[in-house]
């Protein structure tokens, strides 16, 4: 881990295969990707290396924030790596903010889920921290846990 990374981890009371399903299938993914009451719209979710990852988060006031990225690595029930530096088909985006590594590890209570956001510099890491990374991503993992536990 680098000093420019932010990490959050939680135990999800469901097996890695069920957590994986909640990540892989857009019908489940949209239920947990953004902290409620933000609504996630999944435009593209091509869950394979080079696949497009394109979402819109609709805020309570109706404003929308898009995020287009690319899945770099997808290892079933174990690891997901994505970035906003690229979009689907490995095409470069205009700008980038972070890449993320998601790991799923078997745990006696279910799955140890760890999300790490990698930033190119301290300023971007601090901006992400100031945006509420720990609370926001932590909340999303808790929501993911509820979705996975219900499957």
Automatic annotation (TrEMBL):
Entry's family note: Belongs to the AHA1 family.
Protein name: Polyketide cyclase
Pfam families: AHSA1 (PF08327)
Gene3D superfamilies: 3.30.530.20
Stretches assigned to the Activator of Hsp90 ATPase homologue 1/2-like C-terminal domain: 13-148
Superkingdom field: Bacteria
InterPro entries: ASHA1/2-like_C (IPR013538), START-like_dom_sf (IPR023393)
